[in-house]
Amino acid sequence: MFIEPMFATPLPNLVKNPKAKPFILEPGRYVSQEKFDGLRIITEIGSNPDQLFVSKGISAWSRYGNLRPHPEHIQEELAKFPNVILDGEICAPGLRSYGTMDLDNTADLVYFVFDILQLEGEDMTDVTYEQRRKLLEQLFKAEGKSVVLAPTTDVNTWDEVFALRDSVWARDGEGLILKRKDAIYTPGKRPKGVWVKIKKLQSALFTITGFIPSRGLINDRGPYAITCLVDDEGNRTQVTTKNDAQCRAFEELAKMPGQHAAIGRKLWCEYQERTMPENSYRHIRWERWDKE
C-alpha cells in the first residue's frame, strides 16, 4: 500500500545569512538528521513473496506513487524485516541523486530508512516521531550494509544546528532536516515547523522567456504552471511558478494587447548547484522579482 510521504518546509537561504535564526528552537523538542541526496522511496514489506529470491513480498514507490523496485541486494536485507511500511531514501554513496539512476552504481546503492508508517498492519502515522524512532531502533538492532537506519542527533540550540550543518557542507553533503519529536506523520503534507530542511542554496538572475501549462502534477494551475527562464550565459531552465495567485496574474497580463508583459522580466531564483557539463541548475526554485 502506497502512503504519500510527508515533506519538509524549506528555511530561508542560510548561505546569505548563515547565522540567521528563523524560529525559536526549543530545547529538547528537535532532532537533526542529514538530508540525503537521493531518491525518496516508500517501501512495504509484506507476508506474501512476489519474487523467487526473497522470502517476503516487497513493493516500493517513488514520492509520486510510481513503482520503483529495489535492487536485489536491498530486497534481500528488507526481507529480514517484519511486515512494515518504511519511509527512506535510496542513495549512491558519494554521488548526487542522479547517480542512483546509473546502472553502474546499482550494486552500491544503500536504502537509508528514517521513518516507519505501519507495523504489522497497525497505523503508525498518528503516533509521535519520538515513538516511531524508538520502534525503528528496535527493528535495526541487527543492521545490514545496504539497509541502514539514518542517524539522528538531539539539538537544543541553533549553534548546535549550525555546527552540524557546517560539517555536512564541509564534506559536500546536501544539508539537514530538523524534526520535531512530538509531531505525528502527516502524509502528503508540509506542516510548518514540524520537518524543516536546511540546504545550501545559491542565487542567480534569469529572464522570463515563456510559460508551460500544467501537466497535472502542479495542482492544475493552468497555462502558467511552469516559468521558462534563461540566464545571462544563455543557459535555459524552468521553475515552478511560485503560487496560484502568480499564475492568475500572468493570465491577466496575457490578455493585454501586444507582447505578454511578463516576458523579459528579471527573476531571481535559488538553486542548489550547477551540474557539469550541461550547466543545468539543480533544485531551482522561485525567489523574488529583480528590482528594476
| First-residue to last-residue Cα separation | 51 Å
> In angstroms, what is the radius of gyration?
21 Å
* CATH class assignment of the largest domain: Alpha Beta
**C-alpha geometry:** globular
CATH-derived topology of the largest domain: D-amino Acid Aminotransferase, Chain A, domain 1
Which runs of at least 5 residues are low in confidence (pLDDT < 50)?
none
Strand content: 25-35%
Question: What's the number of domains?
Answer: 2
Q: Summarize model confidence as the mean pLDDT.
A: 87
Looking at CATH, the homologous superfamily of the largest domain is: DNA ligase/mRNA capping enzyme
H/E series, N to C? EEEEHEEEHEEHEEEEEHEEEE
Question: What count of helical segments does DSSP give?
Answer: 4
Which structural class should the secondary elements be placed in? alpha+beta
Please describe the biggest sheet, giving its number of strands, its sense, and whether it closes into a barrel.
6 strands, mixed
How would you portray this structure in words?
It is a single chain. This protein is an alpha+beta fold. The relative contact order is 0.15. The protein has helices spanning 72-78, 129-139, 158-170, 244-254; strands at residues 9-10, 30-35, 39-46, 57-62, 84-91, 110-119, 122-123, 147-149, 152-155, 175-180, 195-199, 202-212, 226-231, 236-240, 266-271, 273-275, 280-282, 285-289. The longest helix has 13 residues, at 158-170. Strands 3, 4, 5, 6, 7 and 8 form a six-stranded mixed beta sheet that branches. It has a five-stranded mixed beta sheet with strand order 1-11-10-2-9, with helices on one face.
